[in-house]
Amino acid sequence: MKPIPGLPQEKPNLGERVANQPAHQELMAKRKNQQRVSIILSYVVLTVLALLFIAPILFMIIGSFKPDNLVLVEAGSLKAFVPDNPSLQNYEDVFARVNFTRFFWNSIFITGAIVLFGLLVNSMAAYAFSRLQWRGRDIIFPVIIALMIIPFEAIAVPLFFQMTWLGLRNTYTAQIIPFIANAFSIYLFYTFFIVLPKELEEAARVDGAGPIRTFFEIIVPVSKPVFASVAILTFLTQWGSFLWPTMIAVGERVRPLPVAIAQFQTLPPIQWGDIMAFGVMMVAPMLVIFLIFQKWFVQGVASSGIKG
Predict the structure, then answer these.
(1) Which long-range contacts (CB under 8 A, 24 or more apart) does 58-65 make?
(2) What is the spatial distance between Cα 265 and Cα 208, in angstroms, rounded to a whole number?
(3) First to last CA, the chain
(4) Which UniProt keywords apply (predicted)?
């Protein structure tokens, strides 16, 4: 129908315009289908990747409950992930063959000491670099950050000779002190402290609080996420440390779990069910700690400015 000149024309609403455009509707439907396909593919890929990462852990857990003669026989099929005659015999054998309780305590004590003392030392160092004004700060801080690029293997031998010269070989001290101060932990604390509002410290200073009191009463309570992140990262790293304990821990008295399981694997007779049970008991604390504190970990990583 042609418009009549001189009369106001009624404009079609948005729904009518869209309805009169079949090409537009077809395009929208095509885009929705593409989005659905993209989402489905994303879930499929993520599920496959998750299974690939979880498969070794499931194989170890299920194998720890199987009779020893079935652990490796079924490793090449899906039967490896199906419990067959499950029992706790392998776990009993581990405690009967080696002093697992001692090794577990050693790892708990060494890792716990490194985490606790590391939180104190590294957080105070980062606070001094981020908030306090002192001569040489702008020179020393870049040097500390540069230490992150030096692998531990590069200093392992000199450190070994130093500990031997000090008479600390085969002691807890030699496994704890070298790892308390950590450049990466200082950097994490620094990136968190540097963005805190200075008004908090100024208010504390007005009330007569010094740097130490300000740190413990003002900064620490508002820095729980970064403390949790550093604690988790340090725990995961030190719990699985192998090279240094192998070099420095000679006797069973101070031997941690990573070294113990390496020697247990070659202890005759070789029982793969027992080895799997040992591995499960070694990995379990790491999984438990991470699952409990993963919320704090994610929050701390985000607030510390670490981007993937």
Answers:
(1) 60/276, 60/279, 60/280, 60/283, 61/276, 61/280, 63/272, 63/273, 63/276, 64/90, 64/91, 64/273, 64/276, 64/277, 64/279, 64/280, 65/90
(2) 60
(3) 60
(4) Cell membrane, Membrane, Transmembrane, Transmembrane helix, Transport
**One-letter identity of residue 21:** Q
**How does pLDDT run across 185-239, given as a tens digit for each residue?**
999 999 988 888 888 777 777 777 778 888 888 888 888 888 988 988 899 899 9
The residues near 209 (Cβ < 8 Å, ≥ 6 apart) are 217, 218
DSSP 3-state of 125: helix
| Domain over 97-303 is classified CATH 1.10.3720.10 | yes
> Residue ranges per domain, the chain?
22-86, 97-303
> What span, in angstroms and rounded, lies between the C-alpha atoms of 194 and 144?
16
Tokens 């000199």, residue located: 158
